[in-house]
Request: fold
Amino acid sequence: MIQEWINVTGIITKGHQVASGMTKDSPYPLGTIEMQTPCFKQLGLDISRFFRGTLNINIRPYKFKLYNPQYTFETVKWNPNSPSETFSFSYCQVIYYKAKYIGLLYYPHPETKPTHFQDDSTLEILTHPLDGIKYGQSIQLNLNPNEIDIFSN
Reply:
């Protein structure tokens, strides 16, 4: 059990909506998370309890670096029409209206990701559906200090 968390506040931002499949011109109508879920389960991480999309949280002026994630899966071939990718995950807590929800920092490594990049101030989080969540809202995260570093420019 994690004794000390890194607590960071961020703003919910609109992502590319490819993870959820909600963008109109997505090459993945079901969303990338739906397509990747069986691959991750086969590798030992079951993400099926989470919403099939990511919560994008901008923590500017801070940036993050994932350095010792609990899970890293290399050469994951989740789509037959794309190259293999590397993914890392770190458990976290999402604090929304004083309630805590378990979550995972979802990190597709940019060096293996073909498109739809995030900047290093935006965390992509897998978590349970959060009623009433809106873009522009403030939200808090508890992050594992043994796996991630938060720093300012």
